[in-house]
Amino acid sequence: MSNNNETNKIAEFTAPGMNEESAKNTIATLDNRMVALIDLQLTLKHIHWNVVGPNFIGVHEMLDPQVEVIRAMTDTIAERIATLGGVPVGTPKSIVDRRSWQDYAIAKGLVKDHLVALDKVYNGINGDHRSAIGKLSELDPVSEDMLISQLADLEQFQWFVRAHLESSTGKLNS
């Protein structure tokens, strides 16, 4: 967390029918997902710019639509945080301060190397989205539903990545 507690709930309201504690916990859960999706957007653009080798163009062109969908997901989460009386903070330093994972390690690299690494990124994003859905099921069904919808797209994007890595027998070549 940043030193200013920027993600703390500061409004004197939340969604009607939701108690303050549920709102606070929902905002914290959504904030974590917002940070992860902002990081994912940037990672996808990084890969888009730095992927080389066989199948370059297919991977290059596959990533931009993912970035656009994930940008929309991020916006939806940020607006939900605000709806609940929270403050969606998306400044670069605040994102780095709040994330709990290591930076993407590959610079310019071959298609397979980037896709193997991206598959691991999606493992983390998708697994954490599932965990957040579990938490939100007790706190806020509206936010839970939002993340369920997002996870369907995120899992499909991971399938697109894995299709480049999968053998004809279904084994992931990593």
Strand sequence of the main sheet, in spatial order?
1-2
Strand content: under 5%
How much is the average pLDDT? 94
Number of helical segments with 4 or more residues: 5
Low-confidence stretches: 1-5
Please describe the biggest sheet, giving its number of strands, its sense, and whether it closes into a barrel: 2 strands, parallel
Q: Which structural class do you get from the secondary structure elements? A: mainly alpha
Report the end-to-end length measured between terminal Cα atoms.
34 Å
Radius of gyration: 17 Å
How many DSSP-defined strands?
2
Percent of residues in helical segments?
Answer: 55-70%
Order of helices and strands: HEHHEHH
Write out key terms for the chains shown.
single chain, 174 residues, mainly alpha, two-stranded parallel sheet, 5 helices, disordered N terminus, Ferritin-like_SF, DPS_DNA-bd_CS, DNA starvation/stationary phase protection protein Dps
